Structures are given as structure tokens and as C-alpha cells.
Amino acid sequence: MVIMRKNTRKQVAPLRRISPQMTQARAYRKRRLARYAFMRSFGYDPVAALKFVLTKVRWRRTPVLDIGTGKGDFAVALARRFDAVTTLDINIGDRRFARLAAIYAGVADRIRFVVGDGAKLPWRRPRFGLVASMNAFHHMEYPDRVFAEMCRVLLPGGILVLADFDKSGFQIMDDMCRTEGETHPHPPSRFAVWKASLTRQGYRVELFRDCHLQVLIAISPEKIARS
Ligand SMILES: C[S@@+](CC[C@H](N)C(=O)[O-])C[C@H]1O[C@@H](n2cnc3c(N)ncnc32)[C@H](O)[C@@H]1O
Fold this sequence. Notes:
Blueprint: H1 20-42, H2 46-55, E1 64-67, H3 73-81, E2 85-89, H4 95-105, E3 111-115, E4 128-134, H5 143-152, E5 154-165, H6 167-179, H7 191-200, E6 204-210, E7 213-219
Parallel strand pairs: 1-2, 1-4, 2-3, 4-5
Antiparallel strand pairs: 5-7, 6-7
Helix pairs in contact: 1-4, 3-4
The protein binds S-adenosylmethionine.
């Protein structure tokens, strides 16, 4: 008779080396979560806001362009759903944070970072199936131009997603920034004007409001008459 000896030695999982980049990404994530908690204490929940915007993006269109990368919250959320995201910002300052957020989320290889002006996009022809921007427009010097450029690079049948604070959102940002001795840009909303203009051009447009944001979703006509 063969007696099988029970292996009583504990199976120890091999130690996985954490890359220095991931260590930085984790540290940054901790700081970002603290910032989210600070925002929530004023009444704005950035995670709920992101979820709200994404629930309005019910179609799969790629490639994706995001305008106003900032710290990358929206670009990373888009990259979790779409595998080809280009994100453009006029400033390079926050890009390292956006990259750390992408590394933490495991989507760094899906995002291409571009430095450029949204009012003068570097693509000559329409080439994006989804063109989006979140909480960036109130920072734009020429929002009308950026909006026109977003439409110009959108493919026929593509989706435009524009989200920014509504009146109550700006009030929260004002209160929050005041406690930090800062001010926050507060331009008048152009959403109604853009909605009317897109509707005239044959886009299917819807406006939504929740989580202190307004969101414009527009589907471009399959055949766009471009001047
Ligand atoms: C508050 S951040 C955007 C937040 C970001 N979308 C997110 O979800 O984390 C605003 C960004 O808009 C960028 N910005 C301002 N004017 C711009 C322009 N003309 N073209 C591209 N980016 C611009 C700023 O540099 C800044 O990084």
C-alpha cells in the first residue's frame, strides 16, 4: 500500500514586485480620494457625477477624443469603456497626474496624451466616433471655437458629449475655492445656444441635468453638410 503524505506546508503566493510607477500611482490615488472626499463635503460627488455622465453615453463609438485632460478623471473613465482614447490639453502641467490615474486604473495603454488647443485641433478631417469633454469648458478662453472644433472632427453618426457644472455646481465650486483662497471661472452657460445650433444642423440633441452638472448629448447626422 502506498501512503500519500499530506502536504502540510502552506502555499505561499510568490511576492509580486510592485513597480515604482504603481507605487506612485497608488500614492496619487490616495491623494485624489482625499480630494474627492473634500469635494463631497461641499456637496459635489465627483464619482457620482462621472457615473451620471457615462450613463448618458449609451453607444459604442471609437476612436474617442476627450478635450481638457486635466487630472484625467474623465479620460480614465472613458478608457475603462473604450480602448482607444485620445485626450488633449493645452497645458502639460497635470499630465503626470492623469498618467498616474491611468496607471492605477490599468488603462495607460489605451490613452494617448496630446498637447494642443481645443480651439485649434490638430486633425484636418473628421476622425473620432465620440468627442467628449467634462468639467473643462468653463476653463476655455474661447468655448465657442472649441465646441465648433469638437463638431468638426466628429465622424458622421458620431456622438458628442459635453458636460459641465450647472448653476448649483458653480456655486459649490465657488464655495470650495473660497475656503482655499482661490477663485474659479464662472462663465455664463452656452448649452442652450449650442443645443439650438446643433438641432438646426440636423443633430439629435438631448440635454440632461443631475449631480450639479448639465450634459449635452448630440448624435451627428449620418451625412453632415460641412461648409
Ligand atoms: C478642470 S480641468 C478638466 C477636468 C478633466 N476633464 C477631468 O475630468 O478630470 C480643465 C482643463 O482644461 C484645460 N484647458 C483649458 N483651455 C483649454 C483649451 N483651449 N484646449 C484644451 N484644454 C484646455 C486646462 O488646461 C485644464 O487642464
